[in-house]
Design a protein that fits this description.
This protein has 67 residues and is mostly helical. It is 73% helix and 0% strand. The protein contains 4 helices and no strands. The protein has helices at 2-11, 14-19, 24-39, 50-66.
Length: 67
């Protein structure tokens, strides 16, 4: 859990994202996919991530509105 917390905090750092040439949505989707493959059995994986993409769009919009 500590590792996940540290990685997630890094993904929220705009300076780090710019250095990595990544958008926040791209970083969150990559993190989600890597965690999904670590946690679930392969037969349970659903490769359709459109709902998570929409969720991340809404999350990022709320974060921008909060600032």
């Amino acid at each position: 859990m500590t590792q996940v917390d540290l990685v997630f905090r890094k993904l929220m750092d705009p300076k780090w994202l710019m250095l990595q040439n990544m958008t926040m949505k791209q970083a969150l989707m990559d993190f989600y996919k890597s965690m999904k493959h670590q946690v679930f059995y392969e037969k349970w994986l659903d490769e359709d991530d459109t709902e998570m993409g929409a969720y991340f769009d809404a999350l990022i919009a709320r974060m921008r509105a909060y600032e």
